[in-house]
Amino acid sequence: QVQLVESGGGLVQAGGSLRLSCAASGRTFSDYTMAWFRQAPGKEREFVVAIDRRGDTTDHATAVKGRFTISRDNAKNSGYLQMNSLKPDDTAVYYCAARIPRLSTYATHYPYWGQGTQVTVSS
């Protein structure tokens, strides 16, 4: 199995940018599809973006298309989420997740999760 640790969250003004990182350990990172989900207070966890094992294919939630970019570096056992043009509605705890083998937008399909990192966007 794989262990995941997120970092890079923080407080940013609307219109700003943040880059989240997800460090993986354990089983070979390149075996896993990786995704980012987020959960705002009082709301269900929602899909943000996912990337396949090789980094060839991505899938984005409509709300973040054109603003968020997912990437991965399998040699470094790491994944990344570049978030630009942030909005107050993006405020949430962001989670890195992994599964084998294919992309999915459903949180229940991902057995491996990090602890989350808080992103707060002020207006």
Task: Provide an overview of this structure.
It is a single chain. With 123 residues, this protein is mostly beta strands. The chain has no helices and eleven strands. It has strands at 2-7, 10-13, 18-26, 33-39, 46-51, 58-60, 68-73, 78-83, 92-99, 112-113, 117-122. Strands 2, 4, 5, 6, 9, 10 and 11 form a seven-stranded mixed β-sheet that branches. A hairpin with a 6-residue loop joins strand 4 (33-39) and strand 5 (46-51). The N and C termini lie far apart (40 Å). The model has no long low-confidence stretch (mean pLDDT 96).
Q: Tell me the helix content.
A: under 10%
Element pattern in H and E: EEEEEEEEEEE
Low-confidence parts, pLDDT < 50 over ≥5 residues? none
- How many distinct helices? 0
Structural class: mainly beta
Strands, count: 11
Measured distance between first and last alpha carbons = 40 Å
Shape: globular
The amount of beta strand, in percent, is: over 45%
**Rg over CA atoms:** 13 Å
Characterize the largest beta sheet: strand count, sense, and whether it forms a barrel.
Answer: 7 strands, mixed
Average residue pLDDT: 96
Topology:
Layout: E1 2-7, E2 10-13, E3 18-26, E4 33-39, E5 46-51, E6 58-60, E7 68-73, E8 78-83, E9 92-99, E10 112-113, E11 117-122
Parallel strand pairs: 2-11
Antiparallel strand pairs: 1-3, 3-8, 4-5, 4-9, 5-6, 7-8, 9-10, 9-11
